[in-house]
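Please produce the structure of this protein holding uracil.
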Amino acid sequence: MKTATPTMRLDRLLANMGYGSRREIAQAARAGLVVLDGKAVKDADQRIAVTVDLAARMTFDGAALDPPPGMVLMLHKPLGVTCSHKETGPLVYALLPPRWRRREPMISTVGRLDKETSGMLLMTDDGDVLHRIISPKSQIAKRYRVTLDRPLAGGEVEAFASGRMMLEGEDTPLLPAVLEVLSPTVAEVTVTEGRYHQVRRMFAAAGNHVVALHRDRIGGLALPDDLAPGAYRLLDAADLATVFGVAGPASG
Ligand code: URA
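Below is the modeled complex.
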């Protein structure tokens, strides 16, 4: 069944996108600063169809509109920033335009990367998308490049793939994970779960220590080489389908 395009009053839509209070939006609209398809929308009560192409069709004060609600983006998380709204120190949200921090619903990270892990981080204001990606049922594969303190001992590939590996303090074994050895101290590991500090704890359980961790793939979506640390890019429906399109090692 085809779902109807949601509509929203202009003042509410733009206030929720962080452009100002509803009163300020009404003033801006009256002044002709809100333009849709080349025509000023002077009445802030007007209902606007919230389509994915709205940013290409609407301008605010002469500039293209921010992405409408339902946005998903990929951030190349640098080292040293935290995936949190409230902790002290540098936060991933500070890497986005300041206006986006005033959005309602707010933008959240899809799962977390540790402060000292770099790589692909998805962020969204769409609760359904967030839950579909992090749901244990989805088993979306996440690939990490791992640099180790000591050479691999041998046996880690089998241990990770066994479906019997236990993490300290837990009582459910890990789902099978794929370990690809690139050198004695560098490997790629693909997991389909998102347990707390999972990759670091897997190597700790194997008697090693992770010195660098970088996520370069979620589902079928790879972190582009030209996306610098700290930069982000919006995902479209095709990118999102790619996230969901590739089954993880435990599902096939
Ligand atoms: N596993 C970890 O140990 N840390 C991360 O940031 C992600 C996966």
